[in-house]
Structure formats: structure tokens, C-alpha cells
Amino acid sequence: MVNAVLFWIIAAITVIPALSLLFARKAVHVAMSVVLVMVGLATAYVALGAPFLGMVQIVVYTGAVMMLFLFVLMLVGVDQREELKETIKGQRWIGLFTAAGLGAFLVSIVGRTALPTAEVGVQGEPDVIAIMLFEKYVLVIEVLGFLLITAAVGALVLTHTPRLKPRRTQLEVQRDRVLMGANPVNKPMPGVYARHNALDVPALDPEGQPIEDSVSRVLKTRSQTQLGEEYRAQLEDPSRKEGDR
Amino acid sequence: MDPINFVILASILFAIGAAAVLLRRNAIIAFMGVELMLNAANLALVSFSRMHGEIDGQIMAFFVLVVAAAEVVVGLAIIIAVFRARQTISLDEPAELKG
Amino acid sequence: MLDLTWLLIAVPLASSFVLLLLGKRANPWGHWLGVAASGTAFVVGLLALIQMLGLDAHDRAHAVHLFSWIPGGELNVDAGLLVDPLSMTFVMLVTFVGTLIHIYSVAYMEHDPNRRIFFAYLNLFVAAMLLLVLADSYLLLFVGWEGVGLASYLLIGFWNQKPEYATAANKAFVVNRIGDIGLIIAMGLMFTYLGGVDFATVFAAAPEASTAQLTAIGLMLLLAATGKSAQFPLQSWLGDAMAGPTPVSALIHAATMVTAGVYLIVRSAPIYEGAPAAQTVVAAIGAFTLILGALIGMAKDDIKKALAASTMSQIGYMMLAAGLGPIGYAFAIFHLVTHGFFKAGMFLGAGSVMHGMHDQVDMRRYGALRTAMVTTWVTFGLGWLAILGVPPFSGFWSKDKIIEAAFVGEGVQPWILGGAALIGAGLTAFYMSRLFFMTFHGKARWTDDQHPHESPALMTVPMIILAVGSAFLGLFLAMGDRFTDWLEPVTGHAEHHEPVLPVPVIMVATLLLVALGVWVAWRKYGAADVPETAPAASLATIAARNDMFQDSVNRGVFERPGTHLTRTLVYADAALVDGAVDKTAHSFARTGESVRKTQNGQVRSYALTMLVGLVIIILVVVQGGL
């Protein structure tokens, strides 16, 4: 039997962060919430007499899988926003209704069952699990080994990009840019008022106007940029404290 | 408290995961929904293991864990490949299946 | 050692795989591995033979259970080996002659870039042939049967860069398939009527089965045997099979594989015991083929094709003997063994002649080779005397007995069969002497670029050994009925029957006919000049030169009607079946066209559909089940 307080704590730290999957806008926030869900689930495993599985859950999910998710998020760019407006007609309401219906069904069915609970709980210690895995389920373990190797090779194959054309030289890149009518010179660099690591301060054009392009678009996405005027004002009025934004 | 409550918890988490897959267009978030569904199933397996007093449920959960790990690797690789080809990870963008 | 007989099959098979899988890196030593594998098989066989000779005659049949092959309800087939005097005879023949031919091939194929692959195929053949003779069920025998067919196909087409050689390989393969269908049907009939396909079950059940059933099985087995042994009506492939390298012709198409049909008939003796009609057909086909082969052999100018025709004819003798029942079985096998020696020896001799004569096969361009190739001449000569049946050489002891046995019986049958065998002996003497004199005697009719020379020792030594066998093996095995006693546990005891003619009369008549044949051949081809191109000849000779028009007959009787039938069927298929199917498909297409609109290409929409379906299923299950 499980401590009731513990159960409610676990329920809270799994269900509430899980809802972020539906409502959070930024993928990074979702990923961090899911990490919390995984920790909650690991706690549940320990409470249910599966300490080994709980540890594995933390190591594999919070440690590896979710970090991999975050890594891929970084790769594809955190500014991959999604339009919150639903494009498929009726998808949102039918989807929500069906998912809620599924949940309600499952809960009602489970709630109606009367399964006895074994008096003596199991203890999923590592040695017990290991003996099971390598005696009764050894064939499955072998097959899983194949699966993992296949998955690894599959990931390599999928992410490999063969070079089909010869590498473009700097000269060709430059020529193309001129032909496209792009700015032939470098973009202005940020941080003209280099008071600190001022990557977030836009450059100023000769008229004293900030050049938006000079700041990384990622910082803009995160709303972490500074306005040029602010720094200029600061310069012109030395009485304002440095770093006082 | 009866472990059957954990099964109810697992049902709720499963429904949330399913809803995420249906509603979110960001492929990575939808994928996290899939992961949540898998974990909900795991939680149910561990609860059953506790209820029956047999360790086999935990072993099954372990297997699900391994398969899920393999699935994550391949799934994320596919997302990256799609992103390279289309510069987007929106699920609505690839519509070649349109009949 | 008897329990280790599986090594006989495993060693050459393993060697074959090693040679094929290792690829070019095995080139320097691959052929010696092939020889070693074959030699190992021979040693194992010899040890098993020695052990078997130490047993009582009735304990000599030894079953080796390998593994349970097809465990399935009523049809249980175990893979097992049956080692008895009959299979042991074949084991010794195959491994001994096979090893000699392996050694011979090392030199013969020396300049061939694919020698390693050649040896891999030879090993494969040896393994399959041993499986064929050692199998303890028709099904396992069939595996070996197909295996030798495959090896034969691969080796006939070994030089498949020439289209006609590849065609010859295909022809052999296809004709053999027709025979194989016979074996498959026979197995089906056995399973239905006799309750199994292993020898023990079949032979135990055979006496209870009806004559009609046994006759059907016997005729189907005979069809299989005619395919493999190039007997009428499936004889047409053997002549073309000479496209393969000469050692192949010696091993597969003279000494061993083509005799598998005889083995099959003799092994199935209990079935034929209950089917006298089938037995008579076997004897009749044997007698017919022995005359047919001899007639073809008389007109062929290609040395290998003449030898092939002779092989056909000699196997006709064996078939004839096998069709005579217990009095003939032992002599069929006896002739098979001696024939294996002298025909393999002569083929190797022919290979040696070709080796020395720049791959020339036309005998009209040979002549007077006895001085240039003394060893070949002597060894070939011993084989020639053996096949003629001149006492005391091997052929006399086996062939003469077959002729005697053919004269046993009542009514008109002994006169027909015996007469055919007797005339066949005379014809054999003529065409073999013709071959021998045209090749080694007379005047030299060589082309300018030919410089005959003796072959290297690697080739002559196997020829010498085989020649010694051709000379003395028959006498050795016939003394005191050694061979017939050895085979008696398998073939059954033969009651002694007196032929319709006294034995001395038959023997003298045979020898007189043989002498006549040799004398005519000497007059025409030894003493007289032989034209360098084939002269115009009578209709009969032209027919014989063209293999009795066997290909034209096959084409007219089977191929043309078959083609027309197929065309009709294709037309009917296109109009009726396809029409109906197309209409159905069109209706599906139209349905699909309308359903297509639900496919909007959105993955999430599909996922939603799946989930809705899932919820509905749960609903149904909960409402209906709980």
C-alpha cells in the first residue's frame, strides 16, 4: 500500500506539468515540464516497489531522452513557433472531446474494476530484475539489442546528408549574393556601445537609428534585446548608472 | 492507498498525451505527447506488477522503456531530416499524403 | 565409423562452401582443398566399408538417425542415413572415382581462371550424390537427386560464355525436371497408399498394397529414373551435356549421376516386386534405349558424344537388368560399378586426347595417336576391351551375366529382351572399336596446328588406376560370386533359373557378335582410310547422326502443341479472366476515387481518426463485454 499523501504529491507533479503539453507556447517550457513529469513517474515507481525502474526512468528519461529533445530543439531553432490558430476545421474541438472521452472511459473502467492487491509487495531490486532479464527473458534482451543497434544506425542514416554538389567557394557565394542584390558588405555588428558583452545592443546607422538586423534573431525571439536609444541616452547622461536598464 | 489509483493516474496522463499529439502542430511537442503516452502505459504496468505481486510487469515496463528510447532516437532523426528538407517542423506542412 | 557416415556428405559440402565463399583468395590452393575433401570422403567410406565387412551379412544394414526433419502429424520425415551394402557400393564408387577425377582435373583445368569454382561444384556434386545414395527416405533422396541435378547443371554450363553450352545446361535442367515430377508424384502416391516416404515404411507396406497402386508408383519412379539416367524418352539431354568439361562428363555423365536412376529402381525393388507390369516396362525401356544408344553411337564423329551415346546404351543394359527382378538387380549394380570404372577411364582418356589435340573433338581429325600418346592408348585400350566384354576384362563379368539373365523367362519376352541385349553387344563392339581405331590407329589426319603430346602425370595416373580397375575389378568381384553375395541382403536371394538357351551358347554367340563387330570396324576404320569430313550417307546414318531426330520429335510432339495450348490459354485468360478482373478493379478504382476525398494529407487528422476509432472500440467492448 502506498502512502496517500505521497500519491497526491505524485499526482500533482505529474498531471499539472503534463498539461503544459497542451497549453504552453514554447517548446522549451514543454520539455522542462515533461522532465518534471518524468521525475514524478520515477517517484511513483519507487513507491510501487520498483526502485530499479525508478532509477532507470530518471537516468533514461530525464537524463537522456529529454536532453536529446532539448538538443534537437536547439538544432532546429527555438524560434520555431507554432501558429496557435487551428488550421484543420474542427480538429481542436473534436480532438479535445475525444481525448477527454478516452480519459473518462479509461478512468471509469478502471474505477469500476475490483482487482485484489497482493498483500506482499514486489521488490524490484536490481539483482531480482537482472536474474529475470537474463534467465526468463534473455531472448527478448537479445532482440532488444538488435533493435537498439538498428535504431542507432537508422539515426545515423537519417541525419546523414550526402554532398551531391561540389562545395561552393567563397568567390561563388559572394558573386551570388551580389547577383541577388543583397548587401555586398557584412551586416553591421551589434554592440557598438561595448560596455559589456553587448551582443544584445543593436548597431546605429549614421542617422543614429538602431539597425534591427545587427542583433541575432534568436535574442529577438526571446525578447532579450536592448534598444539603441536607451544606451545612447545613458551615454549622454553619465549620471545614469551603468547597467541600469 | 490502493495502487489502482496509479492506474487511474496513468489513464489521465495517457489522455493528456493523446490530446497533445492531436492538437499540437510542433512535431517535437507532439512527439513528447507520444512519450507521455508510453510512460503512462509504463506506470500502469508497474502498478499491475505491484497489484499481482509479480515482477514480470516491471520487466515489461523495462522493455517498453528500451523500445521507447530507440523510438526517440529514430523519431528525432526523422524530425531533423524533415527540418533540413523543409526548414520547418510543423506537422501540417508535409501534406504529400493528400489524396 | 558407420555412425560417422554423415561426414561423407558434410566434408565435401563444407569444402564446397568454403571454396565458394572465400572467393579469389582461395585460388592458389582451392583445387587441392577440393581433392582433399573428396579424398577424406573416400577414406571415411573405406573405413566404414572395412567395418561393415567385419559384420554378418544380415547386420550390415545400418541406420543413422541425423535429426527430425519434417515433424508434422501424419507425415513424419526424419533425416537419416541408411548404410547398407548397396549404398556402400555407391559410396566407394563415387568417392574413389570422384577422387581420381578430382586429381585429374587439377591438371586438366590448370589454365582455367575459374578452377576453384569448378572444384567447388565438383565437391557439391560429390556431397549431393552421397546424400542421394545414403538417404533413408525418398524425400531425402530427392534432396540429393536435386542436388546432383544442380551440380550437373552448373558444370555443364561451366563455360557458359558460349551460348550453346548455356543452352545445353538449360536443356539438361529442364529435361531432368520432367523426371523429377515423376519422383514427386511417386512420393505423393507413396504417402497416400503406403503411409510414408521413408524406405522402411514404404517397403514394409508394399506387400499389402494393390498391384495397381504399386504399378502407378513404379511407373512414376521409372519416369524419374529415365530423366536422370538419360533413358528413352528423356534421353535427349545427355549428348548436349558433353558441353561441360571432360572430367565432368567422366564423373557425372558417365560414372555416377546418370546411374542414379538404376540405383532408384534397385532400391525400390520391393515396389517392383508387386508390380510385374512396371517391371516389364523398365526392362523394355532399358532394352530399347540400349539399342537406340548403340545406333546413335555408331554414327557420331564427336568423340565425347559417341561416348555419351555409349553411356546411354550401357545404362540401358543396367535398366534392362534392373527390370528383370531379383535375378538382375545384382548384375545391374555390378555392371554399374564396372561401367563406372571403364567409362570414366575412357572419358578421361578422351579428355587426355583433347588436351593433346588442342581441344579437337572430331574423331575424323584424329588417327594414329597410339605413338604420340602411349599411356592414353594403353589405358583407353583396356577400357575398350572392358566395354566390349572380352574375357577376362571387367565388362565381360557383368555384361555377359545381364545377357544371360535377359534370356530367362517364359513366352516371347526372353527372346525379345535377350535378343536386344545380344545385338546390343555386337553394336557396342562395332561403335567402340570404330571410336578406338579412328582415334588411335589408321593414318594421322591432324590439322596443321596440332602437336599431340602425352598429358602430365596428374592426368595419366588416375587414368592408369582406372584402367587397372577396368581390367581386373570385374574378375576380382565376380570370383566366387563375391559381389552378388555382398549385395544379397539388399537385393534378395535370386532363385536360379535356366535361360531359354544354354549358357555356353549365349556366351559363344555374344563373343562371336563382338568379334564380328570389331572385325567390321577394323575393316572400315582401322585398315581403310577415313575421310576427314563425314561422307554422304544413308538415311539411317543421318538419323543416327542427328540423335534419331530426338529434338525434332520432342519439338513436334510436345513443344508445338504445348505452345498452341499456351497461346489459347493466354488468349482466354486475357479475354475472360482479365476482363472480369479489370471490371472489378475499375469499380474499386471508382470507389477509391470517391473515398479519396477524405484523405486530406494532414497527419494530425489521421491520428484523430485513429483515436476516435479507438474510443468507439472501447465503447463497444465495455458496453458489450462488461
Write up this protein:
The complex is a heterotrimer of chains A (245), B (99) and C (626). Chain A is mostly helical and 245 residues long. Chain A has helices spanning 4-23, 27-47, 51-76, 91-112, 126-135, 138-159, 170-179, 217-221, 228-236, and strands spanning 203-204, 210-211. Helix content of chain A is 59%, strand content 2%. The mean pLDDT of chain A is 82. Chain B is an all-alpha fold. The longest helix of chain B has 31 residues, at 56-86. The model of chain B has no long low-confidence stretch (mean pLDDT 88). Among the domains of chain C are: 342-545, no CATH class; 555-589. In chain C, 72% of the residues lie in helices and 3% in strands. In chain C, strand 1 (62-72) and strand 2 (75-83) form a beta hairpin. The mean pLDDT of chain C is 86. Classes of the chains: A mainly alpha (245), B mainly alpha (99), C mainly alpha (626).
Which structural traits does this protein have?
heterotrimer; B: 99 residues; mainly alpha; 3 helices; 78% helix; C: 626 residues; 24 helices; 2 strands; globular
> How many β strands of chain A by DSSP?
2
Series of secondary-structure elements of chain C, N-terminal to C-terminal: HHEEHHHHHHHHHHHHHHHHHHHHHH
* Approximate helicity band of chain A: 55-70%
Helix vs. strand class of chain C: mainly alpha
Counting helices, strands and paired strands, the structural category of chain A is: mainly alpha
Number of domains of chain A: 3
What do we call the CATH topology of the largest domain in chain A? Four Helix Bundle (Hemerythrin (Met), subunit A)
